[in-house]
């Protein structure tokens, strides 16, 4: 094994870090493509909206979209080390430390679960 591979040992599996990244990308694609988010939203709206509440609900949804975009921007700015890379940090150090900690816990938990 050369320096381009990092080995991750679990109880039953042996994964190369690049294989783990490929699996993560496949899972993200699956969620984006097949998770029934539109159907869930339509179901929730039909279940709970009265005619007079439509404008209030629309405003709530717009505000929610703004907050979610801010959170997505933070996640997209995450520079946690991946496969031995150390990308330059662009977030406040306290935020980056928490995201890096979560990435490590999630990664280790995946293999040792």
Describe the 3D structure.
By secondary structure, this protein is mostly helical. Helices cover 65% and strands 5% of the residues. Residues 1-8 have low confidence and may be disordered. InterPro entries: TF_AP2, TF_AP2_C. It comes from Ascaris lumbricoides (Giant roundworm).
Write the H/E string, N to C.
Answer: EEHHHH
How many DSSP-defined strands? 2
How much of the sequence lies in strands comes to 5-15%
Distance between the termini: 26 Å
Neighbour order of strands in the largest sheet: 1-2
Principal-axis shape: elongated
Rounded to an integer, what's the Rg over CA atoms?
20 Å
Largest sheet: 2 strands, antiparallel
Task: Give descriptors for this structure.
113 residues, mainly alpha, two-stranded antiparallel sheet, 4 helices, 65% helix, 5% strand, TF_AP2_C
Q: Nutshell version of this structure?
A:
By secondary structure, this protein is mainly alpha-helical. It has helices at 17-34, 37-48, 54-76, 93-112, and strands spanning 7-9, 14-16.
How do the strands and helices of this protein lay out in sequence?
Elements (H helix, E strand, L loop, with lengths): L6 E3 L4 E3 H18 L2 H12 L5 H23 L16 H20 L1
Antiparallel strand pairs: 1-2
